[in-house]
Amino acid sequence: MTRPNQIRRHPELGVDDLAEVHAILDEGFVCHVAYIIEDRPVVIPTLYVRDGDVILLHGSPASGIVMAVRRDSPLSIAVTHVDGVVVARSGFQSSINYRSVVIHGHGVVLDEAAHERGLDLMVEGLIPGRLSDVRRPTTKELRKTSVVSVPIDVLSAKVSDGPPDDEDFDLGTGVWAGVVPVEVAYGVPVPSPDLEPGLATPDYLTGFRRS
Predict the structure, then answer these.
(1) Which SS3 state, helix, strand or coil, does residue 25 take?
(2) Dihedrals φ, ψ of 114, to 5°?
(3) In the predicted model, what is the mean pLDDT of the chain?
(4) Structural domains of the chain in order of their starting residue, each with its CATH number
(5) What is the model's pTM?
(6) Cα 72 from chain centroid (whole Å)
(7) How far apart are CA 144 and CA 58, in angstroms?
(8) How far apart are the first and last CA of the chain?
(9) Segment 88-109, tens digit of pLDDT
(10) Mapping DSSP to helix (H, G, I), strand (E, B) and coil, where does residue 14 land?
(11) DSSP for 25-78?
């Protein structure tokens, strides 16, 4: 992997291990994608999944992302996990613990041969185990959805963790400092009101969580 820009603020937080980058990406499923369309910048949240060394995005053929890709707009994709609120003895040193990856590049719209596999990966990436339960998409549904592939090669990644980094002159002032952990919790699945009576919740949903 390469970096388009040197990390200037806290370069010591930079991540060069591709396996760690993949782990950060695999834990999430919502990213923010920036692109240029009609000479203006746009940022939108959307679902994604990692497929080896590429990121897959999907949307209607008329969506902004797909139209931007077809016009060869550069893309930036950001994924961030907030792991804690860092409560320092000063407002200046207060911050968050986080893991983030920003990918830069150009996307391609998958051709017909790879399109349906891309949609399958989106389903399975969001809810592992679900693909074997759902019906196959219809021809009409396939035509109403496009899948975009973006290589994971030009990127920057950072991880910030640990306690506050207070100044020496702030120590011993009687002000509490520490970290408030942030965790994502998944609740008990709620059945659809039109579900058949007695239909059990699949095991992959009862214990659902991200890696």
Answers:
(1) helix
(2) -105, -10
(3) 90
(4) 11-181+195-206 (2.30.110.10)
(5) 0.86
(6) 22
(7) 10
(8) 23
(9) 999 999 999 999 999 999 999 9
(10) strand
(11) HHH--EEEEEEEETTEEEEEEEEEEEETTEEEEEE-TTSHHHHHHHTT--EEEE
